[in-house]
Design a protein that fits this description.
2 copies of one chain form a homodimer. The first copy, chain A, has 706 residues and is an alpha+beta fold. Chain A contains 13 helices and 36 strands. In chain A, helix 6 runs parallel beside helix 7 and helix 8 packs parallel to helix 9. Chains A, B: Its cofactor is Ca(2+).
Chain lengths: 706, 706
């Protein structure tokens, strides 16, 4: 009753302030959130959002600007119907941070009619205990069937000059370091935040990407993103940095159109996750909950994967994807590799892959990824080349059948690699053949890549046409019982709930950048608040040798992380797909540290975020899905910090052995990254572990029942 | 020897006029043509062409403007090598106007080096007795691998203000009536020549399409076109109407680029067919000869097709492609047709198709085309709809299995119809499935269509990306042993030699326009000089009822042709794929006239063009490939005209029965189109037949050995 009075009073207050013609309020199940829908006098729909009685989203307009249409879907609406309902259900993900997820919300569906045009638009709000999701729906109707979106005009009006963790809005890449700044500082910092990429296109000096992490001066954490991005353009946010209002900015097609729509259709969900505790942002499953349930009936073939790969050696430049240096250009089916002189640095050769299979088999790794196995790498990049790869023809030194049989004999899977070079049509033309080749040769997972500009020219990585492609590849893969890990694709929006064969994405600045000049040492304390909101990332952690020149004397890049931090990532960066990314020689040098990678599972019974502050630290404890064991990870920003981990999550009365992989005394991401200490102790649910993390450091703990 | 002296003298004359640094001459085998290659002082390559000692192409520049490149491929060249060779071979087409084709030419290959950039470009000229073909070649080299063509700068400098038979240059359609005018008049007539189309985009008020037919005041006939258009943009011609110089104008992609090139690569051939006798233009096989030999090993499944179809009734508006009028929009896989109310006008219903199968079987037709058989026609057009058809799901009233079995029992084939609506990606995604469906259900030929704008937006019908798609569909069809008849695709360039499963194209204004307001009565006297230069057209002749309102009272269109003219088209418009396009009820009304369509073959032993004048008349005699019978066709322009046909092509000493289908006394395309007379007489090789053709009329003669 108290809650009811509270919300009434808020609404009354709002009504005093606004010129409105219709209003409707919605509360979250726990009453912490209140969302108010108001229709302004001119028929403009708006919403605002309160958390614990304080506004976190001020009055924000909703609607669309249409192309070739005198009357857009911005105003002139009346409310036809307003419907409130509740939903509470628990579902079991195929893989995840926990074995069960509760989907609990109150819903408000506002049916609007634009009287002049007799067009209907529904805005559906779902208010969870962790935040708000809403989307636009266009039911089947006479006067709104086909239409083109010039721009979506969804506002997110901030209440002040918040601190943001942002990357530049870009149609083609998210591979940027995060900048922490006030909203008012974005414009001035923008250019400096844009670092080179193989394909990139910004649109505004105050344009940023989602998931965007914000923090108010009152320590309210707000995350803006979207859920269930299907057949629609990826949403960016453009900031009015005078009024601190974000407006949606969709990714355009080749002629500047932003959405090709056909009713009945709906947009993705626009999401606002918020809390006064940063760990709630990390623990939120709202993004998944706003996606459709799993559409794959038989999921027995979907499984988490811990893998090593023929990869880091090429990324650092010590090995090569290409087989030869002889060809100025390759034409598939015409270029004769049999007579080409090998360059001697081709990593994906049969013997080398066998060594990796052996290592995987000996160390409990599920699989080995091999990049550069197929012909075409001599000129794969930067040429807008359409017929760049055929995805089925190996280099002369890569024996598909032999490796298939050898991997099988060692009970190790090989992970396929499909680099498309952005040539989307070429990939789609070969997809059936490529997936069939995988079925025939024992590959059940593929890492796909979209490096460089999307073809045909004029398209980009994040528009509706491209989004539609990534989805096509995922759904077709499901037909072939293939798991997908798409790199350079659009950032995830929880679609892995619906298509759990999407076991990974890159779509952010991954470990590779540690070999391209390095990433910020606190990068991994931001990613879980941003990129990971939509789904797991194939971040490829586990680098043990931070001095890249050890592998390639010509590469002076440094991995800005301590070794202990690298171990912690297997816990802090949740993914059902985890790579041990370093070359196996480096793992052989540090077998005691590598033991953690051997031990850590990739699927979880439950997760508890113990503490978190974006840009500064994250500490999380997770319980193995298949045993009672627990694993704790801590990643730290640039300031040395000591954490006290209370083991209250352990089962009371039971005894455990904790093995702590921590930074050494003088460890430092830059000056002393390989300094680590491992110690073990007996612990119970009452224990507290005090562990110091170095700058750019962290710790990893495995806790096994005795 | 005389020839040698002649060409020397021409070259000497040229050398006096030009500032040149290198020169080379090439003669046609019969010596009628002389082509001179000259490198200007600034290293610009040029050519000129003489016919019977008179210039028909004045000094014309050759080269390319490149994108993002300081130095284009326009000048600064020196001649590295100059190589003359000869070629003479006779090959047998799988189908055609004759059973053997001679490929006889002299060749000059000029290897140019741009000294400053060290780039190599070869220009290869082939001079036949019927004209010149030349192309650019970019061999594998270090300094020219990937490059983007901003514009091809190939000139065709006319010697005067010739008469041209032209249609507006357009990136999306060739479905225009031809305009006959002086070159200097094009600009003034251009706007009037542009009639509405579902997708169209002109680029210049003096831009015209190829094949372009020209006639000089000295009655030299010149045809400009291209051969072997593969993975390159379709070439238009832009006229400098002060100097009468045409320059190539390639069709751009979404960002304005005109060619994405990777050496080794070559352009299509640019062709100039010329003669002082117009029939030589029609008899020229230069376009085929410049294409690669047949690449399909087993061609036993490729066969000419005479067919009827469920088509004209929808074109005229009396029937409908759509099954229902109930849906404002269709979403494949979601829209439930089983409960939809049929509109009662859906032509592609099982019973109606059976009637057509019966008629085909009774009248020696090979096949029945059925359009509108598959779901999606309710909103197939004009919406930039991506997922418009799936090509495998029939309407509820179209029983695939029953019709498959029924057609088989009657020894009649069904012709598949794939309308893509320009949604190229959607079509490619479904292609394997669609072709498999055809294999499974007894279809061995497909009519494909590309009505409306090409998707994704920014692409068009004739650029490199689209050309690449049509080729992909043809080659994949060959894998499935399927014959292709592509409508609204790029106009053909002789590729059917290489891929003889390409048995037809539309790519011009076909008979459908006779139901959309009518075409010019002399249209069919132009098409063989223009559109047919590149390959056969699925013109769909055989309309017997010229008053369209008889089928659909709401359609007042008139077919601008006499009935006899319609019969003649089966001979004058060569195609291995010929439709009897009218509804079968109209054929039942005129069984005596229909007898000619029953009799006329669709594959020929030899062809003799007896007389021709573009825009005015064409008379051709062809001998059946499978018998000794001959067939003669005459189409006439707008002026009444009498032809005397000498039957000297008949075998001497043999007796024949000629059946002459001619215009009636007062026949006229407009006022009295259905007036015709049929008479028979005995003839020999010595006979001459005098036959009058009405305005928009013509005659057809079948000559059978007695």
């Amino acid at each position: 009753m108290k809650q009811f009075i509270k919300s009434i009073s808020i609404l009354s207050f709002l009504l005093l302030l606004s010129t409105w013609v219709a209003a409707q309020e919605l509360n979250s199940p726990d009453g912490n959130f209140t969302m108010d829908f108001l229709l302004l006098e001119d028929g403009t729909p708006t919403y605002q959002l309160n958390f614990k009685d304080k506004a976190i989203i001020k009055s924000s307009k909703l609607g669309f600007e249409l192309k070739d249409d005198a009357q857009s879907l911005l105003d002139g609406f009346t409310v036809l119907e307003s419907k409130i309902s509740a939903f509470d259900e628990t579902w079991k993900p195929v893989w995840g941070e926990e074995s069960e997820i509760r989907n609990h919300y109150n819903e408000l569906a506002i049916t609007l009619k634009q009287n002049e045009t007799e067009r209907i638009m529904v805005i559906r709000f779902r208010l969870f205990n962790d935040g708000l999701g809403f989307r636009y729906e266009f039911p089947q109707q006479k006067n709104l069937v086909y239409f083109v979106i010039k721009e979506e005009r969804t506002e997110f009006a901030m209440t002040g000059d918040h601190t943001a963790f942002w990357i530049p809005g870009d149609y083609d890449t998210q591979e940027y370091d995060y900048t922490e700044s006030r909203l008012s500082e974005i414009r001035g910092l923008f250019e400096g935040a844009v670092t080179p990429n193989a394909s990139q296109q910004q649109f505004s000096k105050t344009g940023v990407q989602t998931a965007l992490m914000l923090k108010t001066d009152e320590s309210i954490y707000i995350n803006l993103h979207e859920a269930a991005l299907v057949n629609y353009a990826c949403m960016h946010l453009d900031l009015d940095d005078t009024n601190f209002v974000f407006t949606s900015w969709l990714t355009p097609d080749a002629v500047g159109d932003k959405g090709q729509m056909q009713a009945p259709r709906h947009t993705p969900w626009r999401t606002i996750i918020a809390s006064d505790d940063a760990t709630d942002i990390l623990a939120s499953r709202m993004t998944y909950n706003l996606n459709e349930p799993n559409k794959i009936e038989d999921t027995s073939w979907i499984h988490p994967v811990k893998y090593i790969g023929i990869w880091w050696e090429m990324i650092t430049g010590s090995g090569s994807w290409a087989y030869t240096d002889e060809f100025p250009s390759v034409q598939l089916g015409k270029t004769d590799y049999s007579k080409a002189k090998p360059n001697g640095r081709h990593s994906a050769n049969t013997q080398h892959v066998m060594d990796y299979i052996d290592f995987a088999s000996e160390n409990g790794m599920d699989a080995v990824l091999v990049e550069g196995w197929n012909v075409g790498w001599e000129d794969w990049f930067g040429h807008h080349k359409d017929d760049v790869f055929d995805f089925v023809t190996p280099y002369p030194d890569f024996d598909v059948a032999e490796l298939r049989d050898y991997a099988k004999s060692k009970d190790v899977k090989l992970v396929m690699h499909h680099e498309t070079s952005g040539a989307v049509r070429n990939y789609e033309r070969h997809l059936d053949q490529a997936y069939t080749f995988m079925n025939d040769n024992g590959y059940d997972a593929v890492k796909s890549g979209y490096v460089g500009d999307i073809l045909p020219k004029g398209q980009n990585h994040y528009n509706q046409w491209a989004v539609n492609h990534y989805q096509f590849a995922i759904e077709k893969a499901a037909d072939y019982q293939i798991m997908v890990n798409a790199h350079e694709a659009v950032r995830p929006t929880g679609l892995a709930r619906t298509w759990p064969n999407l076991i990974g994405n890159e779509s952010a600045r991954g470990t590779e950048y540690q070999a391209f000049g390095g990433s910020k040492p606190n990068h991994v304390t931001v990613l879980p608040f941003t990129r990971l909101i939509g789904g797991p990332m194939d971040y490829t952690p586990g680098i043990f040798e931070m001095d890249v020149s050890k592998l390639n004397p010509d590469n002076q890049s440094h991995v800005n992380s301590t070794l202990a931090n690298q171990l912690a990532l297997y816990v802090t960066m949740y993914s059902p797909l985890q790579m041990a990314a370093d070359v196996i020689e480096n793992y052989k040098r540090f077998p005691d540290a590598f033991q953690f990678i051997r031990d850590v599972p990739v699927d979880w019974q439950q997760s508890q975020y113990l503490e978190a502050e974006p840009g500064h630290y994250i500490t999380v404890a997770r319980q193995d899905k298949n045993s009672g064991d627990w694993f704790v990870g801590n990643v730290n920003g640039t300031t040395e910090r000591t954490t006290t981990v209370s083991l209250g999550f352990l089962e009371k009365g039971k005894k455990y052995e904790a093995t702590i992989y921590r930074d050494g005394e003088n460890a430092h991401y830059n000056t002393n990254p390989q300094s680590y200490k491992i110690d073990s102790k007996r612990v119970t649910a009452k224990s507290k572990l005090k562990v110091r993390s170095a700058p750019g450091g962290g710790f990893a703990i495995s806790i096994k029942e005795l």
